[in-house]
Amino acid sequence: MDASIYGVSDPGIAIKECAIALCPEVSVGHGPTPPSAIDVKAKQRKNTDRNFLIARAEKYLPESINSANISKSVRYVCKQIINIIAVICKISNFAHRKTDGTMWLIFAFISAAMLGVYDVFKKQALKDNAVIPVLFLNTLFCSLLFLPLIAASRIAPDEMSGTLFYVPQVGFDQHLYIMLKAVIVLTSWIFAYFALKHLPITIVGPIKATQPVLTLLGAMAVFGERLNAYQWTGVAFAVISFFMMSWSGKSEGINFRHNKWIFFMVLATVAGAASGLYDKYLLSHGFDRMTVQVWYTYYQAAMMGLVLVFLWYPARKKTTPFRFTPSIFLVSLFLVVADFIYFYALSYPESMISIVSMSRRSGVIVSFIGGALFFKEKNLKKKSVDLLLVLTGMYFLYLGSR
To answer: What does the DSSP assignment read for 221-257?
Structure first.
C-alpha cells in the first residue's frame, strides 16, 4: 500500500492532518455543537488549539522516523500507522457531524471489514506454523502498537485529553475488571486459533458468525434490550444464513459432532459472546473504552508469555515448528484497528450490543472472499447463496437502526 493512498505522502503532513482531525468542529459528545453556541472568539480559540497541537505533535514525534539510520521498512510501518490514525480521525469527524443516530452501526460494519481482513491474515499466519508463539506475538505486537499512546498520555495529558487516543490512568480496582476481560478474550482466542489452523476458514467463519445469537440472548436477559421488527427480521435472516453456511461444511467431510476442532470453535464462540456482553457492562459502568482496549491487550501479552515459556517452549520439539512471517504483524495491526472502532461504536449511548455484535459478524463475507482467492477452498457456489442471506440480514439491521 502506497503511503500516499490517503493523500498523505509525508509523516509530517500526516501528523498535521491528525492534529486537525483531533480538534473537530465539536468539543464534547457525538452530536454537533449548536450554531448559536459558536461565536467568533470560540473559533479563534479552536484555531489556536489546533496550531498548538500541531506544534506539540511535531515536537514529540521521534525525528528518527525520517532519519537515514532507520530502515525503509521501519519508516514505512510508521507512515502506515500514522495514515491509519489520520483515516480514523477523519471518520470520527464525520461521526461528529452525523446526527441521525446510526453512526454507531456504520462503525460496527467498518470494524467487521477489518475483522474479515484480520481473519484472512490469521489463517495465513497459522499455516504450517505453531499456534502458541503466533498468538503470543500477536498480543505482543498489539501491545507495542499501543505503547506510543500510553507514553503520549503520560507525557502530554493536557494535549491528549479529549482526543480519540487518550489513555487515562485508572485505579487498581478497574484493572482487576480489565484482567477478567483479558482472561475471557484469551480463552476465546486460544480455542479459535487452534480451530482455524485445522479447519477451512469458510467453515470457521460461519460458526463464529453464530456468536450474535448468544450475545442477543444475553443482552435481552442482562441489559433488557429490545429489537424492532426490522431488526428481528435481520436477526432471522442472519441466523438462517449462518446455520446454512455451517451445514455446507458437511459436504467437505467434517463431522460436526465428533470433530474436536469444531468443538474448539464452539467454545471460542461462547467465550466471544461473553466478551461482548462484558464489554457493554464495562462501558455502561463508566470504564473508558481506550483504557479497556489498551490494558487488556497488555494483560493478554503477559498471560501468553507465561503460556509460551512454561507450556510451549519445553515441548516445542514435539509440535509444529515456529516460523515468523509478516502476516503475524498484520494480524495485530488489523485487530487493533478493528477493536478500536468496535469500542468507539459501543461508546455511543444509543448503541445496542446485540446489533453491534451481529454487524461485526458480517466480516465473514471478507474472510469468505479470502478463502476463495487465497486458500482455494471448496463449495463456493453453495456458500455464495448463504452469503446473500447474510447481506440481506445486515441490510435489515441497518433499516431497523435508522
So the answer is: HHT-----HHHHHHHHHHHHHHHHHHHHGGGGT--TT
